[in-house]
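Escalation from tier 1.

The customer reports that the assembly of two entities below gives different structure tokens on two consecutive runs. Tier 1 could not reproduce it. I'm attaching the input and our single run for tier 2 to review.
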Amino acid sequence: MCIANPQELTERHKEYAARAERFPKKVIVCCGTGCIANGAKGIVDAFQKHLADRNIKDFTVEAVVETGCHGFCEQGPLVVIEPHGTFYTHVKPKDVASIVDKTIVSGELLEPLLFRDPVTEQKIERYQDVNFFAYQHRIALRNLGKIAANDIREYIAVEGYQALAKVLTTLSPEQVIDEIIKSGLRGRGGGGFPAGKKWRTCRDVRSDFHYVICNGDEGDPGAFMDRSIMEGDPHSVLEGMMICAYAIGAKQGYIYVRDEYPLAVVHLQKAIDDCMANGILGDNILGTGFSFHIRINRGAGAFVCGESSALMRSVAGEVGEPRAKYIRSVVKGLHDQPTVLNNVETFANVPIIMHKGADWYRSIGCANNSGTKAFSLVGKVRNTGLIEVAMGTTLRTIIYKIGGGIIDGRPFKAVQTGGPSGGCLPEAMLDLPVDFDSLTKAGSMMGSGGMIVMDDKTCMVDVARYFLSFLVSESCGKCVPCREGLYQLHELTLKICSGEGTEADLEKMEKLSRSVIVGSLCGLGKSGPNPFLSTINYFRDEYLAHIREKRCPAGVCKSLITYTVIEEKCTGCVACITACAYNAITGDRKKPHFIHQDKCEKCGACVAVCKPNAIEVK
Amino acid sequence: MSDTAVSHDFSKLPHLIARHPQDPGSLIMILQEIQREYRYLPCEALKATAEALNVPLSKVFSVATFYNAFSLVPKGKRVVRICTGTACHIRGAALIQDQIENHLGIKAGQTTSDMEFSIEVVACVGACAMAPVVLVNDKYHGGVKVNTAKKILKDG
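Tier 1 run:
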């Protein structure tokens, strides 16, 4: 059913919103990738079956809503019962009958399913009272976990496409760009370049064709914000792209989605089809005469394609090699035409900025860094998941308040931000406000928003080695400094990890890093040495322990560690003997066991099964 | 295992290729379809694609070898993808990889001789909150432990 004009859109909004108000009771089942992996679809089926059987007033099958990612993936599958906001974690299909009988019918709580705060150890009843959510400020993720990802009516009910209608009917393209510049929105993909400025440059280039590309090639390992937005709120991305297209005068847009994100492709395609059917996308959008089309391109697994010129070549069906940037892609991009490339989160912010105004957006965040930023808070933190906070929130608040601190109460060692191009920040930096400029100044970067927390069991030399090995395999090979320089850096970290490094190697690495930064063609190489530079800067002692004492303090580097049984703690349960695939452990039942070092492959199988923690790694 | 040892029905090929606009811009998308159908890119398919799009075979080959998603050798029925993203690495993905490689007797990038399993390591599958993650075909297994890694191969 085509929406012929903006008035009709407003009427639709009123109709859908009124319907949502009439039926406030809902069972919200998180169907993000994490929860689906944990069996969320089975929960949805079970609810539908039970609600259909029971015939409860105002609680029909339609009350079951499959939403996008809530962000709290480790606790999944998640179920929220509205309007009260009762929050259940780790729900299993067998729990559904009692949720319907007790919570939905008689309003009772099911204690075992409630979330237990890892710090206070108290059970928490409502969604909004869980610390993980309470300290967040959600703008880009505003609809995640609230509306059904696959239903355009739900998006329209929460004032979706109102910003587009306002832009198309009341603002000139210039005014749109002015508003985005005024809002201070900076690109959320890594560099933090002001979005409005980029749009203006693109608009000012005379050409018959302008293009909008949404970068959904979230290649940073450890980051999944864009995935969750594309899967859980695809319409906000489309609306942002449409507003951008109007502002720069584009008729064709592309969304470049990573190969590893099949569900995102399905949901985006459904959203595009629904928009086409409703007259919100295609020719003569909302009867205003503005036309715009969007096509999805799937990536094929190449990290370098997150780089703008490489991505554009990939969209054109070619090998994703970057080119030198003396002419920027905003001037000469896809098919050599002026092109705006922003990432998913940036576009998701655009509709709400146009709807609520630049002043509102600027009031959030801190100087020169307005708004919020989504992060994937993962690693050795208690509450892992997807979060969004106002710019300027400190690392401490994020890790200890939202994240609930370090797993098992172990000491915090470092937090890694910015993906492979970013850096590791030590404990002394915990009070650093998180924004583009502060992170860069501290020697790391914002990147797309991965935030990986590390404890004392994480070896920083190994982390540097890990990122360098990633970059070596992802370097496209076009320019020598990146291809050969990163390779040599990686070889040297391997040498240090195996206990054969020297202090002269460190000097060599620092020198080589500088050459790679200066000589590389694109961002991948230019920031490639960062994993080494930031770890050597803040954790030189750990490098020296590997070199001088031939010791890995964190107990990670295999050549430098041994597994031994602590005799006093060993109960002689033979679990480790059974688990060891190399027959390296011997001993009698109820007597301390023994690990034969000549046979031990340091695979960690014994530690995983040892209940009394009687195996020491050092 | 050599390419010729696997017999394929190539009659579907023209249809797979024709689903996309016949211009060089469709190259990656067509190769993705072929990879999905045959679980690798057979030589015949590369030739047919080059012909249909009127691009040199060398260009098709360069794209096919540049991107990680493409393989020129056949893959096993079940592809075990071990995520080695940062979050998974920190939570011990390397130890999980050891276990799976040992159990199947092959290394990452290889396929068992009975064509049942292939092991791949991937940079990040974007399920970081459930680290460490292993995918068996399209099924996600989160929170994998050293002593449970073998079990997920049975579950499929």
